[in-house]
Design a protein that fits this description.
The chain is α/β, with parallel strands linked by helices. The protein contains 27 helices and 22 strands.
């Protein structure tokens, strides 16, 4: 810890500050800690408290500043943590207003303040029974007013000056103070990340050894259209319309920093013991009837059936609330929550920690990570993930600053994401071009649930058809009873399907003028740069499939090629796009040679490989994989991926089946 930690123990006279400080000294010792009584330190500066009382207010403020400076200097020199019993304000009952006595030096020196929220009844009794000091008689109502005012002012002052603040009730004073001071003395950003990593490790070690994919969800306004932190504090406020502590905190100069989330945890600590915290979390989760988005609940239930997929929630909100919500949804065994809320959790979840956990999943555990989030706090995690889904709620619940933050990252190429609009009738963010809309349907699930999984580093370069349509289309290609012209016609249908369903979205469209059937001209659309596109079937096996692509893009050129040298510079220099077509890609070596040749002749041309089936090993490793990983203007579109390793021969060779020449092999 580089900063000297100075902890103030505050409270009204009679709350037990001096007693607590002495008890802490007995238990903690003096090797690492140094205790002070603020009044004693003031007395040392001026030679007695009576002399201090005779000074003017300005002089007294100066003495207090000198006293706190002396404390700080001693702690710095001895490299010890300071614990000071002090006063924030005084308030004689006969006066209407209180007197804040804290100085600017106090605000500069204290790193933490613990307020003893001892009940007013106990304070009055202690003052009456105090035989060592003469204390003026105060009424119960005045003590309550003093405490309420002091806590409100002190909390605001701490927030303004970056001092971490919490309070303790008398039933748990010593034990709670020890827990807090131990936490104050050991916690920093580095320890925070270490503890967060440990929580993730615990979840991963308890998970399935077959995991390949982890889905990481934010909680508030992602899993459900609620802000549980707001609900938690709103239930404790006498005026539901007044701002919650979290609203004031995150709207302050601390923003959503590590320090802000540490302060949020200390606010939660101040509400009482674990039993009360648990009761309040249940009140939020159960009494408020929080339920997951119907679509997300069903999605998580479906994911639980797949042993290679794991689901975690990484929340900056209250971990315990979301554990209860997931338990009520029957998902607590399969969806684990990583987050904080209390000191015992060991860390606070911040935006940077979310990002770091996604990175750890990818780099240490070699996981493919899909991330789901709704606010600017999730953008680091979304940008880091292999696939990012922005959950968009109704206009009333969605984050107001998300559009601008999203737009900046998208424009700068830092983020590539899709949006999931819940409920589906809500207006989308930005537009469906910059942020395509997805649904949790079969097409969305296919890349997750299909096996094998495409390697992370080329996942964005490969498009594999999903849903029921490719299942039906693939059936006839594998049917031994179909060959010759019927199989050629079927390959053409597949070419048309891949072109119209995937290539148009990948390459874009452009407007063209057409003559309407009613005799006037209207705008129509076609493939972008269609007249500068060349379709190249590789040998005869790719020809019927290529004819199907050509049927969709009628203005494109069509050139046969048996070897790469069949494609010359004169042809390619006129083109924006080349579509290399083959029915089956086995090792990928032949296709890789074509790609290398095209790229040598034209450095920026868009290259799209189209196939019916791709053997998994060819995109897992080897020449084709390496090209897809390194060339940002190369894509592969296929009907399906197969793990079946074979080389066609005779009746199993695609070219022979297409042209009824199986007898030749």
């Amino acid at each position: 810890m580089t900063e000297t930690i100075i902890v103030g123990i505050y409270g009204v006279p009679g709350s037990g500050k001096t007693f607590l400080t002495k008890e802490l000294e007995k238990i903690l010792g003096t090797d690492k800690y140094k205790s002070f009584d603020g009044s004693d330190m003031i007395s040392q500066v001026v030679g007695g408290l009576e002399r201090f009382k005779d000074l003017t207010e300005v002089q007294q403020a100066h003495v207090r500043a000198v006293a706190i400076k002396n404390i700080k200097q001693q702690c710095d020199e001895e490299k010890k943590i300071g614990i000071i019993a002090g006063h924030y304000m005084f308030w004689d009952e006969e006066y209407r207003d209180s007197q804040v006595i804290a100085t600017e030096e106090d605000y500069k020196t204290y790193t933490h303040i613990i307020y003893l929220a001892t009940s007013a009844e106990v304070v009055v009794q202690r003052r009456e029974k105090d035989n060592q000091r003469t204390r003026p008689v105060v009424s119960l109502s005045h003590v309550k007013r003093w405490q309420d005012t002091e806590q409100e002012k002190l909390k605001d002052a701490c927030l303004e000056h970056g001092i971490l603040y919490t309070s303790i009730m008398e039933s748990e004073v010593l034990e709670k103070a020890l827990t807090l001071i131990n936490d104050f003395s050991t916690h920093d950003k580095n320890r925070n990340l270490v503890q967060a990593d440990k929580k993730l490790d615990d979840v991963m070690e308890a998970g399935n050894e077959k995991l390949e994919v982890v889905l990481a969800f934010d909680a508030d306004n992602t899993l459900a259209p609620v802000d549980t932190g707001h609900m938690f504090w709103q239930g404790l406020l006498s005026d539901p319309e007044s701002p919650t502590p979290l609203k004031k905190l995150f709207g302050s100069h601390l923003g959503y920093s590590y320090e802000a989330f540490r302060q949020a945890t200390l606010y939660y600590e101040s509400i009482g013991d674990e039993a009360r915290f648990e009761a309040l979390c249940n009140q939020v989760a159960v009494a408020k009837k929080i339920t997951l988005h119907k679509e997300i609940g069903s999605f998580l239930q479906t994911m639980a059936k797949h042993t290679h997929i794991g689901c975690i929630v990484v929340t900056c909100g209250i971990k315990r609330v979301w554990e209860i919500v997931l338990q009520r949804a029957g998902l607590s065994d399969t969806v684990k929550v990583i987050g904080g809320g209390r000191i015992k959790d060991g860390f606070v979840m911040t935006p940077s920690v979310k990002t770091a956990l996604v990175s750890r999943l990818q780099q240490f555990y070699k996981m493919t990570v899909w991330a789901f989030g709704d606010s600017p706090l999730d953008l680091g995690m979304l940008s880091k993930a292999d696939r990012a889904i922005v959950v968009v709620g109704s206009k009333e619940t969605r984050s107001k600053g998300m559009d601008a933050a999203l737009n900046t990252l998208l424009e700068n190429g830092i983020l590539e994401a899709q949006q999931l609009v819940l409920p589906p009738i809500a207006p989308p963010r930005l537009d469906s071009i910059r942020l395509p809309i997805v649904s949790l349907d079969a097409e969305f699930l296919h890349p997750l649930t299909s096996s094998p999984l495409i390697p992370n580093n080329i996942a964005t370069r490969i498009i594999i058809a999903s849903g029921n349509t490719p299942l039906v289309l693939a059936t006839k290609t594998r049917d031994a009873a179909i060959s010759g012209v019927p199989l050629q016609e079927h390959h053409k249908k597949i070419g048309w399907y891949l072109a119209t369903h995937f290539l148009l979205d990948l390459l874009g469209v452009e407007e063209q003028t057409i003559n309407h059937v009613q005799g006037h001209q209207v705008p129509g659309y076609r493939l972008k740069n269609e007249e500068q596109t060349v379709i190249v079937p590789l040998m005869r096996g790719g020809e019927p499939l290529a004819f199907g692509v050509n049927a969709a893009f009628e203005s494109a050129a069509f050139v046969h090629a048996k070897i790469p040298a069949d494609l010359n510079s004169t042809l390619l220099q006129q083109m924006h796009t080349v579509i290399l077509v083959d029915a089956v890609i086995n090792s990928g070596n032949s296709m890789a040679e074509f790609v290398k040749h095209v790229r040598q002749l034209h450095a920026t041309i868009r290259i799209v490989i189209v196939a019916i089936v791709v053997q998994f090993e060819s995109i897992k490793q080897g020449a084709l994989h390496d090209l897809l990983a390194s060339d940002e203007r190369l894509w592969l579109v296929a009907l399906r991926v197969s793990e079946n390793r074979y080389t066609g021969k005779g009746s199993t060779d695609t070219g022979h089946r297409l042209f009824s020449t199986t007898f030749l092999d």
